[in-house]
Amino acid sequence: MTPVAQKVAEQALALPESERIEILHLLRDSLPNESKTLSQEAWDEAWKKELETRIEEMESGEDPRVPLDRVLAELQKPTHKS
């Protein structure tokens, strides 16, 4: 990967998931039709990388996800209107 492509990739990976998905679709649509079909091996490798990234983010505390029990507790609290 060229340094420019590496920088673009790093910046893209720093975006929120919804924006990364939009970019994914944009890039995929820019490919010739024969390039749009991934082999099972390619899908497996892509998911493996995604899972490894998510685990690293969770273990480092970088992942902002909130446990379900905390979300449900917050939803049970009465709302206050100002």
Mean pLDDT: 84
Order of helices and strands: HHHH
Residue fraction in strands: under 5%
Distance between the termini: 53 Å
Q: Total number of β-strand segments?
A: 0
- Estimated radius of gyration: 18 Å
Global geometry? elongated
Tally of contiguous helical segments: 4
Structural class: mainly alpha
Largest sheet: none
Which regions are unreliable across 5 or more consecutive residues at pLDDT < 50?
none
How are the SSEs ordered, and which strands pair?
Layout: H1 3-13, H2 17-29, H3 40-60, H4 68-76
Describe the structure in your own words.
- This protein is mainly alpha-helical and 82 residues long.
- It is 66% helix and 0% strand.
- The chain contains 4 helices and no strands.
- The protein has helices at residues 3-13, 17-29, 40-60, 68-76.
- The longest helix is centred in the middle third of the chain and has 21 residues, at 40-60.
- It is elongated, with a radius of gyration of 18 Å.
- The mean pLDDT is 84.
